[in-house]
Amino acid sequence: MKKTLLVLATALLVVAGCGKKQKAADPAPAAPAETLDMSKYVPSIEIGAPAPAFEAPDVMGNPVRLSDYLGKYVVLDFWASWCKDCRAEMPAVKELYDAYAPRGIEFLGVSFDTDLHALIEYGMEADIPWMVVCNQIKTKENPIYAAYGLHWIPTMFLVSPEGKILGYAFTAEDMEDLLERTLPA
């Protein structure tokens, strides 16, 4: 059903002529995150702070709010389909999802794409099983990007059931470490 909806949405976007190709706001460094000094990309939001509220549409245009996830642990995955590092990390994020979604951890993708067709196409290609929202606002102009104090994508946050920031990670491996340290046994 989900894939049928994505195919339908893609077809509607193609017919409507939706989407311009987006260029990265700041080209990502050529080296993958694990070989860079990532300290300059640390999000400026404080650990323990309330996760900034947001609402953004899913690929079908339905509004999704972070508050819809209160009462659950949530991995917020900030990324974009045009981001090489995001694409490289996606298989590991899917493995993380496969390991932790059965344990009740929710995943919510926040895409910084402006080309909804490209996002849907990549989502189908990568077979992303979790909810992805996208307000189609350029990365550096996006109020969600600013609210979370982002300086790099991909970046993931772990949000507590009470809506507090528990930590962040640039890789699925680091997020798994955070989940293991944080989740009740």
Your description of this structure?
- The chain has one domain: 3-Layer(aba) Sandwich (Glutaredoxin).
- It contains five helices and seven strands.
- Helix 3 links the parallel strand 4 and strand 5.
- It is globular and about 40 Å long.
- With 185 residues, it is α/β, with parallel strands linked by helices.
- The model is unreliable at 1-31 (pLDDT under 50).
- The strands form two sheets. A five-stranded mixed sheet has the order 5-4-3-6-7, covered by helices on one side.
- Helix 1 packs antiparallel against helix 3 and helix 2 (84-100) packs parallel to helix 5 (172-182).
Q: What attributes characterize this protein structure?
A:
two-stranded antiparallel sheet, 185 residues, 32% helix, five-stranded mixed beta sheet, single chain, globular, alpha/beta, disordered N terminus, Glutaredoxin, 5 helices
Per-chain topology:
Elements lengths: L1 H15 L38 E3 L5 E3 L8 E6 L4 H17 L5 E6 L4 H11 L4 E4 L8 H5 L7 E5 L5 E5 L2 H11 L3
Parallel strand pairs: 3-4, 4-5
Antiparallel strand pairs: 1-2, 3-6, 6-7
Helix pairs in contact: 1-3, 2-5
Summary of the model, kept short:
This protein has 185 residues and is an alpha/beta fold. 32% of the residues lie in helices and 17% in strands. Helix 1 (2-16) packs antiparallel against helix 3 (116-126).
Mean pLDDT: 85
Number of strands: 7
Query: Total number of helical segments?
Result: 5
Largest sheet: 5 strands, mixed
Please give the radius of gyration in angstroms.
16 Å
Number of domains: 1
Question: What is the oligomer described by this structure?
Answer: single chain
Relevant CATH superfamily:
Glutaredoxin
Named CATH architecture: 3-Layer(aba) Sandwich
- Quick one: CATH class? Alpha Beta
In CATH, the topology is named: Glutaredoxin
